[in-house]
Specification:
Layout (H helix, E strand, L loop, with lengths): L1 E19 L5 E21 L2 E6 L11 H13 L3 E7 L10 H16 L6 H11 L3 H6 L2 E5 L4 E4 L7 E6 L6 H11 L7 H10 L2 H7 L1 E2 L8 H12 L4 E4 L6 E5 L2 H13 L3 E6 L6 E5 L1
Parallel strand pairs: 1-8, 3-4
Antiparallel strand pairs: 1-2, 1-12, 2-4, 2-5, 5-6, 7-10, 7-11, 9-10
Helix pairs in contact: 1-2, 1-3, 2-3, 6-7
């Protein structure tokens, strides 16, 4: 028995860092949105153990990989067994798009389904939170307000739909490094979380674009990020910002044709770029045998 799962990435329409807890996690204020740039995860049952492979370069294997951790926790909660995982990467790494969290969420969702759904939704979310702070959002998807370390979620409704261009600079930014830089040199934003959440609820894309902020941009060392933001605005984006801890940049567009044209122009310049759209959900089944 096997299953193929789509693992969609995310962008941050808003990101503020407000402090740090005793457990080491930072406290956050975020608006997270699922987008259609996806990894794919192939999951097959085996008698015992976890076998993991990935066609992406430079990714951790074994217990260090979030997909592996998710599989181990699901198997433990379901009473044992084994699984083979194969990960097909499309979401760029060190980009702030939650690729590792998306893969873990896809494993929780897909493996539970393959096992006959022994875990209810609450237990799946508990396992997601054990793997990482972004994994509960990646499991549920849509557009949500996130607080705490990112695990306290509030859906913002389905009024906002958008097209976007995602572009990855040549240099990535490791998440741990970005947080360390913020701790040294950054400061919390003057929060506009409530205002952007209201704009999302109203489906006001122009207002969302005007209110977007990312605290990590204070400490981003890459000139390319600022240049790409300017370029996206010149191409007609309503707003442009770095997502997450970086280094990927996105621009919000009114329609798919405009986003596609901008992505093709950036690709012609030798950059990794994708036209994508917002999605109302997290992982889904591509095929099952």
């Amino acid at each position: 028995m096997s299953i193929r799962i789509a693992a969609p990435g995310k962008i941050n329409l808003y990101l503020n860092i407000t402090g740090r807890r005793e457990d080491g996690y930072h406290t956050m204020e975020m608006v997270l949105a699922t987008v259609s740039l996806c990894d794919e995860v192939e999951i097959a049952l085996r008698e015992k153990g976890i076998r993991f492979s990935c066609d992406g370069l430079g990714l951790p294997a074994g217990e260090e990989n979030t997909a592996y951790q998710a599989a181990r926790l699901v198997l433990e909660a379901a009473g044992g067994g084994g699984v083979s995982l194969r990960l097909h990467k499309r979401i760029p790494t060190q980009a702030g798009m939650g690729g590792g969290s998306a893969d873990a969420a896809a494993v929780i969702f897909g493996l539970n389904r393959l096992l006959g759904e022994p875990l209810d939704w609450k237990r799946q979310l508990e396992i997601a939170a054990q793997v990482g702070a972004d994994v509960p959002f990646c499991l549920t998807g849509g557009i949500q307000r996130a607080t705490g370390a990112g695990e306290e979620l509030m859906p913002l409704g389905g009024q906002l739909n958008f097209n976007c261009v995602l572009v990855k600079p040549h240099t990535g930014i490791p998440t741990a490094w970005a947080f360390a830089q913020f701790d040294r040199k950054g400061a919390p934003l003057e929060s506009s979380l409530d205002e952007i959440c209201q704009a999302v609820r109203q489906g006001d894309l122009a207002e969302v674009a005007a209110l977007m902020q990312n605290a990590f941009e204070q400490v981003c060392p890459l000139e390319e990020v600022s240049a790409l933001k300017r370029q996206l605005l010149q191409m007609g984006a309503l707003g442009a910002m770095m997502t997450g801890s970086g280094s990927a940049v996105f621009g919000l567009f009114e329609d798919h044709a405009s986003a596609l044209a901008a992505a093709e122009e950036l690709e012609a310049d030798g950059l990794e770029a994708w036209a994508a759209r917002s999605l109302p959900e997290g992982p889904w089944v591509l095929s099952q045998t």
